[in-house]
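New here. Your pick:
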Amino acid sequence: MKLLRKILFPFNVLYYSVVYLRNKGYDLGVLKSKSYPLPVICVGNLSVGGTGKTPTIEFLISLLQSNYKVAVLSRGYGRQSKGFVLADASSSAQTIGDESFQIAQKFPKITVAVDANRQRGIETLLALDSPPEVVLLDDAFQHRKVTPGLSILLTAYNHLYCDDIVLPAGNLRELRSGAKRAQIVIVTKCPTNLGHLEKQTIKKRLALQSGQQLFFSSIDYDEHIYSATEKLPLQTIKNKKYTLVTGIANAAPLVQYLESLGHEFEHLEFADHHEFSKQELRQISSKPLVLTTEKDVVRLQSLQHKALYFLPIKTKIDEHDVFENDIKNFINQS
């Protein structure tokens, strides 16, 4: 992989130039961006995949849904449909994407929609009989045709954007200077024992602008696993040999967590958003006990495997009260 990236490095100049000119066009007003008369919160990153966007969106939903009509709009990565699609009882991972389907199932009282054209998506949502009061844009940091009122930028603890370079030799979708557009930066997937001194070191490395807020979040695993029909304590399967199936950007934290609990398991690891083939589904079906992620289970539901369980995760944010106040102050002032 390192050799391949060295080979690709000369192409970085071309990618860098294209991205720089595009962003400069928006910064100077040559390329037009549109804002909307309601609070629009964008959650995104500079790098490709694996920074915890969906758990952060779910955190915001939990924070806001009791007081506001919330809509989540994403492009619906991996879906087989086109254009604007509103989630309903007939939706599936194929029609709205696995992450959007996960959110729609988990939060049935909110509005979930997908559209690669975020302007059209927001305008269609506003034209609904019951329009949203707050729109959460999932993975839209680079979608500059929309000007969000608040941008939240995520960067993973073990792969900070300040240590990376742009595609194709690196993992950044755009230049590191793009971070200046964010009002809030969250370092995700932090160790639970992250100390004050290390937080200050990370803050210096990120070189945030005046006024940018920095928060740190960690992954919190549920104490239970869930199937279509039952809920069991996670430790129920500790002494059973099972198969862990993952199709996410970075399965290492989950694997490390389960191993730290003393679990022994076989791991079938697939690429992020992997569309399981019939042969792979048959292979998984042959396993007596299967554990997967909340994101992957929506693409495995066709199995009807009696021993298919998933382990939910959620985001814990340090200085939760400060973060909550920042979000609610933004909404109230919009």
Summary: The first strand starts at residue 40 and ends at 45. The chain is about 30% helix and 20% strand. The mean pLDDT is 94.
